[in-house]
Write a structure and sequence with these properties.
It comes from Pedobacter jeongneungensis. The protein is α+β, with helices and mostly antiparallel strands and 255 residues long. The protein has six helices and nine strands, in the order ββααβαββαββααββ. The strands form three sheets. Strands 4-6-7-9-8 form a five-stranded mixed β-sheet, covered by helices on one side. It has a two-stranded antiparallel ribbon with strand order 1-2.
Length: 255
């Protein structure tokens, strides 16, 4: 049982009664477990058909393109882009259930950090024609970590930088080393985050508030997953920003 006590006071501050509440915690925990389990099964079940539709869409696009019908091919390509979004959302839901049940696995390998960052920046450059992704990679070091998972964090930083700076046209990606760490920063010139809200962005489900919610789609899971990944790899993750002046997201890993 979870007990809470709340003193009730009269106008001069004297306690005249105590409110006492007891809640059955086992029931609460059970419900939470059922919810987590359902989310895990649901996202897994959604993943299978979406993966299959995606494979068909790609084959179809190639066939139509070979026939020379660019207009139809570009429509199928748009389907594929939306399917990528869907795959990403389902992947995030699956990751959250893995984190919550302690089942997120890490397969560390030794890899060239700058090279991995360069590859992802190039990939993202293809997706966003509006922004110029400028890279200054001076890390010059190898990292021993799960390359896929670290890549996921870099991709998340970059896609947020693009998403939250629709009126800007530049994103700066930097890597550098200190005595014992290798650091990545992704800087954008977009809407930024106020000082009061900065500590919330790595929380589960935290999202931009008010009107902006409809302008910027998302589930509010990317930075939560990113921070869990970086912490599991023994690193640090943080943000520096001024509202309206853009944001810089960082992570540091031991080297
Ligand atoms: P999502 O983008 O799906 O909302 P994230 O976990 O990636 O989820 O980000 C959480 C919140 O942090 C966002 O809703 C937004 O308020 C804020 N945020 C993240 N990246 C940026 C950025 N580059 N500039 C401004 N705000 C950001």
């Amino acid at each position: 049982f979870n007990f809470t006590y709340k003193p009730l006071r009269n106008v001069d501050g004297k306690v005249y009664a105590i409110l006492h509440a007891a809640m059955d915690v086992t029931k609460q925990v059970q419900l939470q477990q059922q919810k987590d389990e359902f989310l895990g099964i649901a996202s897994h079940e959604l993943k299978t058909p979406v993966t299959s539709i995606k494979a068909y869409a790609q084959v179809l696009e190639r066939m139509i393109r070979n026939d020379g019908d660019e207009k139809k091919a570009s429509m199928v390509h748009k389907m594929d882009v939306q399917l990528n979004r869907l795959t990403g959302l389902i992947g995030d839901l699956l990751d959250v259930t893995k984190i919550q049940s302690g089942k997120m696995t890490f397969n560390p390998v030794n890899f060239d950090f700058d090279l991995a960052v360069a590859e992802i920046a190039e990939e993202m450059q293809h997706i966003s024609a509006r922004h110029h992704i400028h890279t200054d990679l001076q890390g010059h070091a190898n990292v021993y970590a799960d390359k896929e998972r670290i890549g996921q964090v870099i991709t998340n930083f970059l896609s947020n930088a693009i998403k939250y700076s629709a009126d800007a046209d530049q994103v700066d990606v930097k890597t550098y080393t200190t005595d014992n760490e290798i650091i990545l920063s992704v800087k954008d010139f977009g809407i930024g985050i106020s000082k009061e809200l900065q500590h919330l962005v790595f929380d589960q489900f935290y999202r931009v508030g008010g009107q902006l919610q409809h302008t910027y789609p998302g589930l509010g899971l990317g930075l939560y997953i990113s921070s869990e990944i970086i912490k599991s790899e023994g690193g640090r993750i943080w943000v520096e920003s001024e509202e309206g002046q853009g944001a810089t997201f960082y992570f540091a890993l031991k080297r």
